[in-house]
Amino acid sequence: MTSPESASPSRPAKAAGFALLGVAAVALIIGVVSLFGGDSDTPPVAGGSSTQPPPQTTSESAAAPTTTASPSAPATTTTVPPTSSAATPPPPVTQPGVAKVPVRVYNNSTITGLAGKASDEVRANGWTVADTGNYSQGTIPTTTVYYRPGTDEEASAKELAAVLRARVEPRFDGIQSAPPGIILIVTNDYQGASKSK
Predict the structure, then answer these.
(1) Which branch of life, at top level (predicted)?
(2) pLDDT tens by residue, 60-110
């Protein structure tokens, strides 16, 4: 009579063990799906519907998330959609061939002719100068290159600021309505282009 009682506690332990194995298998599958689905440009969909077009013609990537039988199926790492997808055109921001947008150079310093000097350096480094003058609508704290966000001015402004060792920022309210192009406002701290002499 003691043997049926001792066998009784082992049944819940076996059931709990199988339940834990099932939870572990589901966690493994979710981990694999998030590992392979997390590299794409679109967020992974939990329902298993793949909205991204896989570049392979095999259906292993679609079958892997729904397979719960063997843990060796997710170990096939032949599914690498991001490395071969040609639908992701935005390269890194640092491109060697940035278009050089025309520049307007304004003097906001106490140094006479500083805008002209800065214009010469801007031209010497490959940009065209569309206008030169004074900026007297306020005091700019440091030499700054301004651009309109979301335009080709941004990359060009960042490159020009690096050449001139200046700060770079989006346009502020006082120059929002200025014509298109980069605006360089030079102040007393203007250093010019960094050239080896």
Answers:
(1) Bacteria
(2) 434 334 444 444 444 433 434 444 434 433 333 334 567 899 999 999 999
Say what angle helices 114-124 and 153-164 make with each other, to 10 degrees: 110
In whole angstroms, give the CA distance from residue 182 to residue 185.
10
Mode of pairing for the β-strands spanning 144-147 and 103-107: unpaired
- Dist CA 147 CA 59 (whole Å): 47
* CA-closest candidate to residue 146, choices 184, 178, 119: 184
pTM of the model: 0.51
Topology of domain 103-186, CATH = Alpha-Beta Plaits (3.30.70)
Whether 120 contacts 181, CB under 8 Å: no
**Domain map (residue ranges) of the chain:** 2-82, 103-186
Interatomic CA distance for residues 18 and 28, integer angstroms: 15
CA gap 83, 14 in Å, rounded:
44
Q: What is the DSSP letter of 175?
A: G
